[in-house]
Amino acid sequence: MVLPGSRSAREPDRGIKRGRHGLTPETVAENQRDRLVDAFVEVVAEHGYPQATISRITYAAGVTKKAFYEHFDGRDDCFRVAYEQGTDLIVARVEEARKRAGSWPEGVLAAMRTLLETLAGQPRFARVAVVEINSASPAVRRARTRWLEGFRTLLTDPEAGVAGVPEAVADAVIGGVYSAIYLKVDADRAAELPELVSSLTYFVLLPLLGKEGAAQELARMGQAP
Predict the structure, then answer these.
(1) Which residues 6+ apart lie within 8 Å of 7 measured at CB?
(2) pLDDT tens, position by position, 117-136
């Protein structure tokens, strides 16, 4: 499974021929929905959310406005679906990388690398999910809050032998990481996100291990803050 916006909705193999095609209504609906989500991310990344009209989205998807409203209540609903679909996939990748690590600090490093490399590899989705979401409705922004809150336990309940921090501190750290990512993506420099792996890993380790402890762990893992 790939992040929304990673493929053009207009790719020849994604279209459905008019007339008799032998596909079930469910298959047609799924195809249209997937193309609309990809088209949404493409249009929003290129034009910005305020200028991402239904007409632009449906044209990019190659479907009708009627079909759009069969799948979504409106632009915000489509935004929420695209965002949740993409972030769910990112969380799954990050968690898989973290669980393969041998220790909590190594897990933080693996999770950070996976997150930043994934966003760097999908700049369209990164712009939509990190920058353009600020123009969306409160319901969509709440989906972002839930996603960010999902990283709390990494800091409040780390491995045995490592004392966690209060939720407020965890939220401050998560917000700092998000801000660093935002600055890169907003400047159209998402490709540079992997360059932040060491420094942001250090930032996450710092409140739990202290300055010396965080630096020592990074050195042990072959990283420099």
Answers:
(1) 14, 38
(2) 999 999 999 999 999 999 99
